[in-house]
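ARCHIVE RECORD
Type: protein–small molecule complex
Small molecule: adenosine-5'-diphosphate
Source of inputs: curated submission
Record status: active
Notes field left blank by submitter.
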Amino acid sequence: MKKDGTQFYAQLESEIEFDQNGHQCRIIITDITIQKRGEESLRQQFHINKTITDNAASCLFMMDKQGYPTFMNPAAEAVTGYTLDQICAMPLHDSIHHHHPDGRPYPKCNCPIDNAEAEMKGYEDIFIRRDGTFFPVICYIAPLEEKGKDVGCVLEFHDVTEQKKVERELLKHKEQLETLVDERTKALEEKVLKLNKSEKALLYMLEDMKYVSKKLKQRSAELEASNEELNTFSYSVSHDLQAPLRGIDGFSKILITEYADVLDEQGKSHLQRIRKATMKMSHLINDLLSFSRISSYKTRYESLDLSQKVGSIAIELKEASEAGHRVDFIIQEGVVAYGDNKLLNIVLDNLLQNAWKFTAKKPRAKIEFGVTHVNGEEVYFIRDNGVGFDMKYAGKLFGTFQRLHSEKEYMGTGIGLATVRRIINRHGGQVWAEGQEEKGAIFYFKLPGIKKK
Ligand SMILES: Nc1ncnc2c1ncn2[C@@H]1O[C@H](COP(=O)(O)OP(=O)(O)O)[C@@H](O)[C@H]1O
Ligand SMILES: [Mg+2]
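STRUCTURE (tokenized, with ligand):
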């Protein structure tokens, strides 16, 4: 202890000296505190280094100049399977680096670790475990110098087996993905090619359709024109025929009334037949006239009460009827339609006149009018229990001059139903018939915008 009370490390040296007075002892006390502290700090430093290397996850080796291991940490022992005692007797290269994985020997003179003259960072290699298995590593090498002299090196490495496995898996996935993308791209390209082809085909079709529709338009314009011509022609012909007919009828009438005394019975009978024939011809001309007028007629649409119209026509028919023809009319109330008043009158007139005419021989005739459902759609109908017709000819009825019954039995011109069809078509509707011989007939017609009150 010093005079001031502080303690210090001391090195004691004693010397015994002999002089003329006898002997004396000399003690030399040297203060070695600094030296002691240096030793302590070295011990501490060693302890720290050992803790670090013992706990490091990296594998650490120290080798002398000849490549003999002089130190390895626990991580290096765990990874390689060796202890320092087991491998310190030969260069590290000969224990863990002597062969390539493909079986070729790895000469020490080619070993980058043994020949490292400068620091090497992150170089990849493959080492061999004690059990002979290979494992991939990433190495860091630092040469060791002491007083400017090369004394060996420090080797640090990481076992990257897992990392490599993940990399390989990733690569495999990447390759699979690339193949998939390639396949999909190919399929897509094929689809695009097909689409292009079908697009082209569609374009051609469109071109064709355009051409056809142009042709159709032309045709329909031509048809319209010739139709128009035909109508004007038939109208003027019918019109012009009426005048001479009136002349024939008029003069026949004069002959019968004013020359009755000079004509014998046969002459009178002939004249009566001339008048009957003229009347028939007049009907025919009138029917033809109204038929041809329909095409040029300007339709005006309005809401119409068909029940009322049927009622009025029924009264007219009854009033004009010959005695003995009794008909029961069953008319559904409040049946309305949207159409042209005049034209729909002609339709109902024709259909009811037919029903009336073809029930003439029935003792209990019945004519019905109303609305019914066909295929879920509302349609008008006129039904009678007259002579009916053979369904074989159902399609023929609506043609001009088409008659299924003889002129002798049932008078007519064969234009009525053709007129009906023309009118219904003009309304954008449909007309058809069903019948059974001797059981009756039913005529249906459908108009767009059918309404019931
Ligand atoms: N209600 C009906 N019952 C039976 N047959 C009919 C009926 N209506 C029309 N027909 C048939 O359709 C033909 C054509 O009818 P239509 O064109 O009106 O001519 P028309 O009445 O002048 O004979 C008729 O001659 C007849 O054979
Ligand atoms: Mg008729």
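CURATOR ANNOTATION: The chain has a mean pLDDT of 90.
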